[in-house]
Amino acid sequence: MKLSSYASVLAALASLSESAPTEPVARDLPLVQSNQLRRVLLRSELLKKGNILQDFAYATEGRNRYIGTPGHNSTVNYLVETLDALNYYDIEVQPFTVPSASSTLSVSGAEYESAPMTFTPAGAIVAAPVVLVANIGCDAADYPAELAGNIALISRGTCTFAAKATFAKAAGAIGTIIYNNVEGLLQGTLGGEGDYAPTVGISLADGQTIVAALGSGTVTADLDVDLSEILTYNVLATTKGGDQNNILAVGAHTDSVQAGPGINDNGSGSIGILEVAIKLASFSTNNAIRFGWWSGEEEGLLGAEHYVSTLSQEEADKIRLYINFDMIASPNFVYEIYDGDGSAFNLTGPPGSAEVEKLWEDFYRGEVDIPTKPTEFDGRSDYGPFLDAGIAAGGLTSGADGVKTAQEAEWYGGTEGIIYDPNYHTARDTVENLNVGVWIQLTKGIAHAVATYGRSFETLPAKVKRSERSEKRAVSAGFQRKGGKLVY
């Protein structure tokens, strides 16, 4: 089904519901087993599908799969058509609108590429002086009195973009420009609504050019941030068979940033769960499996937030566990498991989160002899809204903008001292720059969890309905979702 408007989505959904049988698939399929499901996963299929997504991006102006673009809508169409052909899933396409922003920036008459921060307010500023903020703008004392009525220029680093934008506005700035501290255009999020002036990111090179110009005298800038809305779509596929009151939810996001095709971030996760979903169609399950492909992650986890917020309490209580896969083919990779038991980062997920972490620790230690390390439940991907709702969660990742340590280089190879994906949020996030070895291994980790929980949830704590819970969730007090991955 082709997605171009809300009306066409509704028509296509009606067509799907008329053509697809609603009764469960026949139970003569063999019950899923981890080794059998893992065995049929192929690197060649991951690469084939990665090239399909890259072709969608390259057929789009800007060569990306950003929400609302032909590249992203083609991704959604491809998922729906592929899943519908299996006749194994009940498919739902969930439309919703996402706030969107565009910006223009000129400094001393020269045009500069800029990217509005998610959650920035709109605004037009004409010929305002640019004032350099001291250090990296993580302390109110870094913001000089001269900022009042002017535009702040700040280096990325250490504290959140939101903190910098908040300090700038408090100092009287009418606009904020944050320049990158690594190569490439800075595309980030403020993480939520706040008291900000219009805020954009620019590249390191452009930031350095403006800083150098400030050394020679006054520099003025025109900054315009415009806000609008984009219609976009989640895709949900739930097995027709299995206990519909006990669901394993499996998710990844489909959208890229505007800077590039997003084949690791997050074509890799989207394709990983798609390939598992395709191969699962040859098996039966005791529990239902629901695969979710979320849109709007790069804008602040908006697709996953929309899905979770529209669940009734009864439907949310049916989800025993949510597992998330975001960036699973990083070139300078690590093997990271979300710290569900809180032993590494003192931030515990709801009951069941510790158990899925242990499932993968045992799998990688025992089955494939690969060391793993915990990563923090810091709210930088689509598990965040599930945690907020008290739903157990976990996930695997090969890393984003964390810097590889000497210990990690010893374990996995690669280059110490650089980030896990040097192509993160750039035009170089392509099929050619993926690590296919880690991609297939983490996809097998997805399959192991799907097969295990597709058979039984016996290793998870007994299900407790939200209506029966007290203040038991350790995460509720300390978890702060940051909305999108790039917040610093």
UniProtKB/TrEMBL annotation:
Residues 234-448 form the Peptidase M28 domain. The lineage of its organism: Eukaryota, Fungi, Dikarya, Ascomycota, Pezizomycotina. This is Peptide hydrolase. Its cofactor is Zn(2+). Its EC number is 3.4.-.-. The keyword Transmembrane does not apply. Belongs to the peptidase M28 family. M28A subfamily. Belongs to the peptidase M28 family. M28B subfamily. GO terms for molecular function: aminopeptidase activity; metal ion binding; metalloexopeptidase activity.
